[in-house]
Specification:
By secondary structure, this protein is α+β, with helices and mostly antiparallel strands. It has four helices and four strands. Strand 3 and strand 4 form a beta hairpin.
């Protein structure tokens, strides 16, 4: 099985996580998710692998989070998924996937648990 990283090259944690993978002789498929956002199905799979609800995968400090009213506790699962799909900047990064497992690289060393 391969390894995939949902990556934002402008993010220092994402760059550090990618370098950690390279340093461990891994050649991940790099998905620049701001250019190529995941599908709804892919995002649902990532959430299941991480065992997280959508809000826990969201960057709540992004201005879009507040501007779109995503802090409203009445918003449901599908509403939050749709918001992330329409605004991929809201998706926490980096996410590494390997062999049906996923980890968020915050801190980057956290991804070592799934390698």
């Amino acid at each position: 099985m391969g390894i995939k990283i949902y990556h934002n090259p402008r993010c220092s944690k994402s760059r550090q996580t990618l370098q950690l993978l390279v340093d461990n002789n891994l050649k991940p498929e790099i998905v620049e998710y701001l250019k190529t956002p995941p599908s709804r199905e892919e995002l649902e799979q990532v959430l299941a692998m991480l065992n997280l609800e959508p809000r826990k995968l969201m960057r709540t400090k992004e201005k879009e989070y507040k501007a779109l009213g995503l802090d409203n506790p009445d918003l449901g699962h599908d509403d939050l998924i749709t918001a992330m799909l329409e605004n991929p900047k809201l998706i926490e990064r980096p996410i590494v996937i390997k062999d049906g497992k996923a980890a968020i690289g915050r801190p980057p060393q956290q991804v070592l648990e799934i390698l």
